[in-house]
Amino acid sequence: MSDVLRPPRVEPFADEGVDLFVPATYDVVWSVVVAVVVLLTLTAVVAIVVLVRRRAARPERVGTGTRESRLAEVDRLHATGALDDDERQAARTRILGTL
Questions:
Q1: Which residue, 34, 32, 53, 54, is CA-closest to 42?
Q2: At what angle do helices 85-96 and 67-80 cross, to 10 degrees?
Q3: Comparing C-alpha atoms, which of 9, 12, 33 is closest to residue 21?
Q4: Which of 10, 65, 76, 77 is 20 to 30 A from 84 (CA-CA)?
Q5: Tens digit of each residue's pLDDT (9 = 90 or more) over 53-87
Q6: Can you say whether the dihedral through the CA atoms of 45, 49, 51, 52 is positive or negative?
Q7: Are 74 and 91 a contacting pair, CB within 8 Å?
Q8: The pTM is what?
């Protein structure tokens, strides 16, 4: 038989760097997956840090703290006109009722 008609002899593991059972895109796919996981992790860490800092920077809410400070806040709101007499009395009763 002539060399023209004979198929070339192929050795299955001639290339040491090529694995016939793993597709060529395997490395690319896993590189992308690892990059996405790393970016999501970094984003989550940054978001948590930002939320913690914002929460720490918030001023104290009305209704928290000592009874005296809460009563003073109600009186301040009444003095500025934010609360009328009935609302002021209801708030003071609520605060003093927690004794």
A1: 34
A2: 180
A3: 12
A4: 65
A5: 988 877 656 556 788 888 999 999 999 999 999 99
A6: positive
A7: yes
A8: 0.41
